[in-house]
Amino acid sequence: MRTTLNLDDDLLERLKAEAEKTRSSLTATVNRILKAWIDCLHPESGRRRRYHSPTFAMGFPPVGNLDKGLNLAAALEDEEVSRKLELRK
């Protein structure tokens, strides 16, 4: 759709510089900037960005398989009880 806008001279120069920097037309630049501005004003009406949580490789656990956490806890507790009994002797 065509329309006429009255822009301040300094704003027009900044828009032209942005269009040249991004190698796009003045119309495309104005449309992109206006859409981004409206999305910032009303974020719930625009598309929301999907949240991405970064993941990190932590290597292998030094104690073995953690899928059997209760078995691991029991084994560690047994070792501690044995250690305490040895200290009493």
Explained architecture:
The chain is mainly alpha-helical and 89 residues long. It has a domain at 9-41. The chain has helices at residues 9-22, 26-41, 69-88. It starts with 8 loop residues before the first helix and ends with a helix.
Main beta-sheet annotation = none
Q: Calculate the terminal CA-CA distance, rounded to whole Å.
A: 92 Å
Q: Residue ranges: pLDDT <50 for 5 or more in a row?
A: none
- Content of β-strand: under 5%
Give the assembly state of these chains: single chain
The helix tally amounts to 3
Q: Mean pLDDT across all residues, rounded? A: 86
- Helix content, binned percent: 55-70%
Topology, please?
Layout: H1 9-22, H2 26-41, H3 69-88
Helix pairs in contact: 1-2
Quick synopsis:
With 89 residues, the protein is an all-alpha fold. 56% of the residues lie in helices and 0% in strands.
